[in-house]
Amino acid sequence: MTAPAREDVAALLRAGATYRTIKEQLGVGHGVISKTRTAYKIPTPRRFGPQGAELRAATERRYPQIAAMLRAEATHRQITAATGATAPTIVRIRRILRIPVPARHQRTARTIAQVLALYVEPYGDDGHARWSGPHADTQPQLSASGRVYSARREAFRAHHGRPPAGTVRASCTEPRCIAGAHLTDQTIRDEAHLDALYQDIFGDTP
């Protein structure tokens, strides 16, 4: 036989006490508390953190530098460099504090070619290039016209004029190089292998 609903449990539930508090004060089990809530039709309270002005004040206290930089119209990249905050955190703080996005920072839809030109940075004397844009795990990620692409595959496509076959790899000494001329796909690697076999068999031909 299960224990009946209890008025003293109901009183604590109406006062907003947690199940843990009720268990500690009255020595009752979870089943009694649940049965009492149902029998007395006591709604489960919706528990939230600070809201409204309280949340804005707490955010200002916790992130004063980010708030100040947002109001000074700093870019996300500048704020991340200065504070280490991630883009989602910066966006959340902007929304909580109701700081509008400056018109000059509002993104327009870029093409793949524009994004490649923006984030592919040449370096060194051997034609290498690095990706300075966003990553998914360790893979360069390209966002353009509302879609997400592999930056490495799009760099290959832009240089070779065709989509890659299979995995795209750097053929140079820099494994993360994204220079189009240094990227190979399975087709290029197969052709290089056949050329090497031909060379081994026939040698140099006049």
Chart the SSEs and their pairings:
Layout: H1 7-14, H2 19-26, H3 30-39, H4 52-62, H5 64-71, H6 76-83, H7 87-97, H8 112-119, E1 120-123, E2 128-131, E3 135-136, E4 139-144, E5 147-150, H9 151-160, E6 169-170, E7 183-184, H10 186-202
Antiparallel strand pairs: 1-2, 3-4, 4-5, 6-7
Helix pairs in contact: 1-3
The overall strand count is 7
What's the tally of helices? 10
Q: Name the poorly predicted regions.
A: none
N- to C-terminal distance: 100 Å
* Helix/strand/pairing category: mainly alpha
- Biggest β-sheet, characterized? 3 strands, antiparallel
Radius of gyration: 30 Å
Q: How many domains?
A: 3
If you average the pLDDT, what whole number results? 84
Shape: elongated
Tell me roughly what share of residues is in helical segments: 40-55%
What spatial order of strands do you see in the largest sheet? 3-4-5
The proportion of strand residues reads 5-15%
Which H/E pattern describes the elements? HHHHHHHHEEEEEHEEH
